[in-house]
Amino acid sequence: MPLEGTLRDGDLELVLKKTIARNPEKHHVPCYVFLMLAGSQKRVAGVLTFRIGDAASELYYPEHIGYRVRKQYRGQGFAERSLRLVGPFVRKHGYRELWISCRPENQASRISCERNGGILQETVPAPHTHEMYRQGYRSICRYMIEL
Questions:
Q1: pTM across the whole model
Q2: DSSP string of 7-70, one letter each residue
């Protein structure tokens, strides 16, 4: 689906960097990768990924949205604002709810979810066989945001 319009909020802009096709061998779904560009110089403050798939099955752990904010840009609300900015794009894909997961100890991510109306649905153990376990996740908070 083509991106229509600009995803901008003051000094923050989300710019579509690339799309990634489904990779069945790795159990990866198609996704859109956005850069978070900050300030008039448009410096890369972080990345937001929107994954296309069913949150109840194929996306149960990584969910629809993933984001990372560079250290020097943390604490400025870029993740929270990026979630808000990507919402209309997500709705155009037919989604009425958005699922996000994070580590229980990641207070910044939890706050970003909650400030966007996210409700903690459950905290589940990370399966030993899942990629997120190998990345250090032992439990996962699952948030749902109604769009």
A1: 0.89
A2: EEETTEEEEEEEEE--BGGGTBPPEEEEEEEETTTTEEEEEEEEE-S-TTTTTTTTBSEEEEE-
